[in-house]
Predict the 3D structure of the following.
Amino acid sequence: MSAILKDSPPRFRPMRERDLPGIIEIEESAYDFPWTEGIFRDCLRVGYCCWIYEQAGAITAYGVMSVGYGEAHILNLCVRPDARRGGVGRRMLGHLLDLARRHHAETALLEVRPSNRAALLLYHGMGFQEVGLRRGYYPAARGREDALILAYRLV
Ligand SMILES: CC(C)(COP(=O)(O)OP(=O)(O)OC[C@H]1O[C@@H](n2cnc3c(N)ncnc32)[C@H](O)[C@@H]1OP(=O)(O)O)[C@@H](O)C(=O)NCCC(=O)NCCS
């Protein structure tokens, strides 16, 4: 990597198609049931909010969110494994919530596996509250796993 990129300050920027190979590498290391490149491509094509957090010119986190009818739906939030526990997830989530406010959403929603302790602690710490359960929402090693539905009031 060039010295210029290594020195570049951390920043958020919109995701682009050419980021997808790097994102897929992180995605596959982060989830047992990762999104495919096609899913990310569809999210970009339909105009969802797809953002990246970059440090020293490298992708350290990404987030995908749809916004419509006063509701934002956080669909993916992921931090590169070697960049975790340094506040990046909280920063990325804060960025998505700011974007949702700018789009005049009143509520942000997301689904999370009850077994995903790190994510639950992040979301609860940011002020998300449990508002429901989707039974058998996620694929799991044996059968399916429920999803907790979490909500955050933006107004
Ligand atoms: C969940 C995830 C996004 C958190 O990212 P992160 O950058 O490590 O999180 P942060 O450093 O910003 O942590 C923020 C808070 O979350 C909680 N937290 C995050 N990771 C944690 C862990 N492994 N164990 C316990 N608490 C954790 C803590 O409360 C932390 O606050 P603290 O540092 O003041 O204690 C990251 O673990 C990840 O990408 N996981 C895989 C993908 C995923 O599961 N995404 C969520 C799908 S719903």
Observations:
- The chain has a mean pLDDT of 95.
- Residues 30, 77-79, 84-90, 112, 116, 118-119, 121-122, 125 surround coenzyme A (CB under 6 Å).
- The domain at 3-126 is CATH 3.40.630.30 (Aminopeptidase).
- The two ends are 42 Å apart (CA to CA).
